Fold each of these.
Amino acid sequence: MSKKPVILVTRKLPDAVEDRLKRDYEPMLNPNDTLYSADEIIKMASKADAILPCHTEKFTSEVIARLPDSIKAIANFSVGVDHVDLQAARDKGLIVTNTPDVLSDATAETALLLLLGAARRAGEGEALVRQQQWKDWSPSFMVGVQVTGKRLGIVGMGRVGQVVARRARGFDMNIHYHNRSRLSPDLEDGATFYDQLDDLLPHCEFLSLNCPNTPETVGLLNAERIARLPDGAIVINTARGTVVDDEALIAALKSGKLAAAGLDVFNNEPDIHPAYRSLKNTFLLPHIGSATRETRNAMGFRALDNLDAIFAGREPGDRVA
Ligand code: 8YV
């Protein structure tokens, strides 16, 4: 019987995923879910044929260059691959895969949760109840922004953006979007397309960021772009923290230019800009976009489908490098 490939799994994965790993591979598991350093990964990788990491492990060009030749693939447990230097991986002949599709519903749910939570001041209200600071009711108490029928601008109308649009239509929201390319009429489903991001912004009572982290999107929501939003707009981010210029967003939340922001992703997670915590008009989540049982299982199985293909000599379905 030929030896099963050895897979270095950097984080604790759902039980069902680890069971399949044990059945089909020789996994090097991380039962305590320790966050490995690059040096530790490089050392452990010398015994492995592939790595199954999360976005918490950074595969910079330096790390990739130091990976042992035994490693054939990096099969990510994530759709975003901004933690991997794809060009360095290609140069080293590594196959890199991700897990698209399976987390679109969960991430869109989180976007809607942020949208509602930010608009209706859910974080602030929850803290009042929890800290026994809820003293009274009055017509002016905890008044927020109504969501129903408002205009929602979506930046990045890929898989997640399209589901956000569908769910938002349940609140009778009018969908406007900017994307690298215009969607076909059936996918667009009546949404208004803007070729230029700057032309979209003045229409956005709500703005949802759903674009990947690429050199083009770093700092995309900066002071100039925020100025183009209507006064009192609400910004939602389930994409990556890098898409936002923190100082500009914080200034706009402080001045009242923006009514609120709902954020699941941040620059420098988990050591986020402290001002986000002290502002009352932020609704904050700790990067839980894909954190449902169903989705985390599906992400793991998708990563394993990719590994199965790689070790069977087939082209993996989700190859990004
Ligand atoms: C995941 C994500 O939780 O898949 C992504 O790109 O941002 C998250 O939803 C995380 O990346 C898992 O590694």
Amino acid sequence: MRYLTAGESHGKYLAGILEGFPAGVKVTKDHIAAQLRRRRLAPGRSARQAAENDEFEIVSGMRGGLTTGAPVCVLLKNSVRTIPRSSSVPRPGHADLAGMLKYGTMDAVLIRERASARETAARVALGSFALRLHELLGISITSKVTALDGQDAVNSGTTEARILRARRAGDTLGGIFEVTVGNLPAGLGDFNHWDLRLGSRLAAAMLGINGVKGFEVGGGFGLAAMGGIEALKHPELSGGLDGGMTNGRALTLRCAVKPVPGLPGGAPSADLRGFRKKLSVSKTSDTTAVFAAAVVGEHAAALELAGALLDKFGGDSIGEILPRVEQWRKTTKRTLSGL
Ligand code: EPS
């Protein structure tokens, strides 16, 4: 299974193609729309999201509400379709400067249009298919934001107020989100090669989300400060992976999201034509992207794990896959309960 996206932030459409997804999976438009809404209306978002409605069309790979096994193509219409005027002022901390150098252009807009996190809407549309497959296999994927601006974001009840305060101050906030996956069959992924280890595949998917700068599995960086005797008393700290394979426990992934670098009040930059100092002002940036990124994280993980399931169990339709997974669960449960 593999997927690709295309499209710019203010182009006509974003497109997503999902290839190798099994036949016979019921996916409703309502389900996809609900997932897109979760991403779009997450806390901390900019006015851009109020102007979008994420209208979409499934143009291939489905018939009668079921996937056919053929490549699924989803087209998402951008409501905001005015491509900003060319600009030779890169926004610090964004893809602008490195992208301008890389592609040999003086126009930062060419870079911004594709580097924008708007693209993650296409990933969520495709991830919605993977989420449905997991649901049919009894696998749950959830996320929560555990920290905002270095403080607890779960129990404090002050999240909205902190976002508002930052917005009023013209500032942006970073945070941490956690994705938890329950009831995954043991033995997904492989220890034999570094690129087959499930951790490396998940790391690529999660670090591939715009603004993600850190990634941990289970106890993550905290494990480095523990002794082996203590660590073994807490098997949940393995985060559900041993030797690059699922071990039958809940999978826990954690990502650090940087504060959005585009500041509404402007950030010091320079016009690359003439090298005069100039402010780069971002009117459409989010105050924090961590809540939206958490939703994207669920979908990015869902896509990777769907691929890993298909690698292990094969099968072209849900009718083939489901009994194989059930049989495997019975077998592994017997072994694991004997330990
Ligand atoms: C986003 C769309 C973007 C930003 C934000 C997220 O809109 P635009 O491309 O018009 O700026 O609101 O993107 C960023 C934070 C970013 O760094 O690009 C979206 O739909 O998620």
Amino acid sequence: MRPSHLFRGLCLAAGLLLAPLIARAEDGHELWLRYRPVEASAAGAYRASVGAVAPVADTPTLKLARAELERGLAGLLGERRDGGGEILLGTPKSSPRIAALKLPLETAGDEGFRIRTLADGGRPLTVIAANTDVGVLHGVYRYLALIQTRQAVDRLDLLDAPKVRYRLLNHWDNLDRSVERGYAGQSIWDWWRLPDVKDPRYVDYARANASIGINGAVLNNVNAKSDSLTAPYIAKAAALADAFRPYGIKVYLSARFSSPIEIGGLKTADPLDPAVRAFWKAKADEIYKAIPDFGGFLVKANSEGQPGPQDYGRTHADGANMLAQAVGPHGGIVMWRAFVYSHEQPDDRAKQGYSEFKPFDGQFAENVIVQVKNGAIDFQPREPFHPLFGAMPKTNLGMEFQITKEYLGFSTHLAYLGTMWEEVLKADTFAAGRGSTVAKVVDGKLHGCSRTLMAGVANIGSDRNWSGSQFDQANWYAFGRLAWDPEASSEAVARDWAAMTFTPDRRFTGPAVKMMMGSREAVVDYMTPMGLHHLMGRSHHYGPGPWVAGGERADWTSVYYHKADKAGIGFDRTAKGSDAVAQYAPPVAAAFSDLSKVDEKDLLWFHHLPWDYRTRSGRPLWDELVIRYSRGVKAVDGMQATWSDLSPYVDAERHGEVATYLAIQYREAQWWRDASVAYFQSINGLPLPKGEAPPPLSLEAYEAIAFPYAPGI
Ligand code: GCW
């Protein structure tokens, strides 16, 4: 062996031996709750100010709050904390010591907390106090997060409370354990073995959610089966509720509107029929008997083939109010989805939700929340905000985001969605003048509403890493943080997540967060730049399908949305076209309609333009489109380079997994670009801009790519 080889061999062996000490192999199962040791240079200061955790009152939530704090501190700082200080947890009700401190807690509400450091006769004392046990638990997670992200904890006076009341995950999980639009394996709910077998994951799930402030879970798919409302399934849901309860998480169920027929032996589900109303009242009573803190129902009605009140000539308000009356006496709510559209309806699909719901403003019961998707079509990589936000001042209006990436590359593309959600939340509806942001509708400030809701379609499954990919965990995390505070900065959230999930070392978080912040825009570029939308493969929604036409309904095709022909491309939603713009407040409508004002990122959402339309870069539209497609591909190349440079900071297992996924993403970004360019070029016959490579395959070859076994259908 040559000496240099010997040397390299020795280094390799030493590296292998040391590797576990440097970066232990990890699979991502621990999420952002890893509690790895603080580096020696910072640990001393923390040990001095962080003390022993005082005993707590004997309640399930306080006991687990204390256990979590012990576990976190032991991981971060070790068992020995020598400052001689103390950490005191509890509520004024459960702890005379906390009561004696008389900390102002009014604004902490039912779920918030105050963390204050005091000196108790020279000993550092940290108090994590709240009005409720679950508020204390939230405070514990925040306190640990401060250390996890290396912020000082020696002089704290921090009060925080959620700005949104219902912060819910919506699971589109079926009773056979498949997950509609799920890309992280099977459902984590093992319905078959429940209620007897209580998978420890149920508790882990509740813990992860509590750590980011999520307080409810709709267990089953909105495309619901009535079976989930039968006695055996109520018992299964009750077992889950028992596991979640100490973490402050309630269960909710999706209710199939035709259940009175399917499981109630009735001939009708007409919401005004007394027998139907009695069925739902009895059903609610039965559920509350098993689950006293049951949250309520989520309903998808008269949408995509689901039954609903309109089947009986009744309205959405009739249907929602009937259910609201059944759960109301128990404190429950009804979340009624506004995602409705019909292919029999000749009007622009983007207008239909607004047209159907706006007339009912003020007619929904007090405990109904109308749940509105962020955009008017369907969770596309970019949509302008839904025109219902700001348009129903007398109705509780909740936000529905999609955490699972149905339209953004499933779990193999890295796309941080915090930026997308922030973009929507910061959008100004002008409903009550400038500054009437979507966030202010969602947190209830704009219209003085207290039943506020943010729902996220979960991306959780039975994969070890929960979300199908390491970086998709960031979307679960960001959803929780933005539901807690819709005005939070997605960048700050990404930074916290990256620090807690990988390492707080800035040499890592700097580039990693930059990569995350640009990642969704990259997807928009390589899939649907400049306001294009709904151009994915039919039904499975994977990969490009701008050619999709014909079939059962026009509003499930791509040609319906891009309207490309020899002359131009885009959906005219101005007054000359479908006039969808008229559903927005006048200043917003004016800006969207005006070619000199509309943001080019939304251009083809609102306008149909000739291929040679001059864009702001000075380039003709066609050239600009092609350049943006390619820009998206290049961005993924950049992400690969960034990630490769970050290998010193990440354990080999997770680093390797992310790198592999980025390679898939790069290949598929290229495929999206090439297939889209090939298709649109076949329509307009125009040459590519200088320097742009022609697609390597024929259009027919792209069209022939099929996915009969894609997940999530
Ligand atoms: O995005 C579409 C999905 C459907 C989904 C529907 C909805 C649950 O493709 O799978 O059904 O939206 O939100 O109801």
Amino acid sequence: MTSLKSVIIGTGSYLPENIVTNEKLAETVDTSHDWIVERTGIHQRHFVTEGQTTSDLAAEAAKEAMEIANLKPNDIDLIIVATASPDYTFPSCATRVQHKIGNTNGLAFDVAGACAGYLVALNVADSFLRLKKAKRALVIGSEVFSKLLDMSDRSTCVLFGDGAGAVILEAQDDSQNPNGRGLIGVDMQSDGSTFNILHADGGPSTTGKTGKIRMVGKEVFKHAVTKLTASAESTLKKYNVSPEDLDWLIPHQANIRIIEGMRRKLKLDEDKVIVTVPKHANTSAASIPLALHDAVMAGKIKKGDLILHEAIGGGLIWGSALLRF
Ligand code: ACO
């Protein structure tokens, strides 16, 4: 029996031109380059300038992915944007992107999985493709978290940046995909009882305003390392893959210490981990596709490489995904 797989046929990214270094931030925030680097690994972040929106970033990343995949806008029939910072309360950011890239025949919607949103979007797209409800899916993580920052809260405002990353997935059967490329599996879970340790303190039905990020950093840190390790181990076990079989770990880029904690628990070599947090900071749902595209363009990741992703975000919601690129 032939099986359908969701294969990545193009990647893209976009970062706003405005780079804000730790030193620049320290001109207005009571912090220092050394504190930020020591606790997080972050050296700089990109922030949008006036008028730039989440869908603008997403559309640029999408255009690059379409160019690499050699596709026209209407070759895509599903557009999913993972974001916690959409342009408007409604309609979805994805419909804004659909219009901006000139797609007129697809279904576009957003998913809300905070920093784990890209994995949720990947999971949903894979279900559409393997159930033959779509043929080609554009999956984007895009965020303008700079607008959700309380610049008087130094424990959060130094952590985040803006950006977008995109992938295009195509449903391919065994004859088109003899080497078994594609998404192998996604493991995800959430726990709504942990709302208080990471959330934005507003929304349409509460304050009527967007709100700002509130976080109990130490608690998030503890949950991140234990939950991500458990999910990664469960995914590897389910598909009978040992950590040494992996070519790459591409984690959510929240904090170098969380990434390092994961790497040690999985006993992975340092050179198998893609790290972009020093230059991008935490771009929430955009961080994994941004890091993936970065590594593809750097010539590190090649067709056929076995990749593990992992991410955790406000909810809490967390998980891992295994794929052959
Ligand atoms: N600059 C200088 N000093 C600071 C800053 C800052 N930006 N922020 C806090 N401090 C001070 C605090 O006031 C405190 O001072 P005190 O000892 O005089 O009271 C001291 O530094 C230590 O503060 P802590 O909050 O205990 O610092 P901690 O070591 O926990 O590091 C951090 C904070 C980096 C947020 C850490 O908890 C962490 O990495 N948590 C993980 C959360 C995360 O990465 N979240 C991202 C979003 S969620 C996600 O994507 C997974």
